[in-house]
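user: can you give me the structure for this one chain? tokens are fine.
assistant: on it. calling the predictor now.
[tool input]
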Amino acid sequence: MPYCPLPLPANRKGFTLVELLIALALLALMSLLSWRGLESVLRSRDAATQIQDRNLGITSAINQLAADLRNSNPQKISLPQAGNTHLMFIRFVSDANGAQREARVNWMLLNNQLIRNTQELENPASSFTQIALDHVENMSLRLFSGGRWLKPEEIAATRNTNVSEVQGIAIQLSLKEGDINRSFLVGGL
């Protein structure tokens, strides 16, 4: 006798097992793609945060140097014998009462760190040292004096003679991200 399937009822509800397995496979694939997409977004966010933090550190160091030089005494700026990676000058500091005092400020490159040291001249025990910026490969300085820019070797040659009042300073910081070149006026000029 030939096989004759039973007729299906017209009001049949539900899915077959094959349809459910296909739907589950599609849902698993979509969740896997979503998870990978979210992981990629989080990785990008972490990288962007690191770059933003680095840029904030660079900006903070440059702004601090600019503030120091803006409040400096143009006649008391020197590049000590340590070479072209050390800048020393006298800066005016105001206290809470508005009285101005002088402080010696040193910016130096030491062990790939740009270091800022301040010390009040009236109170030598008030020395404060901070790391202004990490991962600095090199620092180069030029002084603007007598109407022209002095190169490092010219500055070294004039150490024994009197350099006229410094009107500006140019600094070049070599970082792994690239070079930063900034020029500053000295003493609020």
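assistant: here you go. The first strand starts at residue 72 and ends at 78. Residues 17-70 form the longest helix (54 residues).
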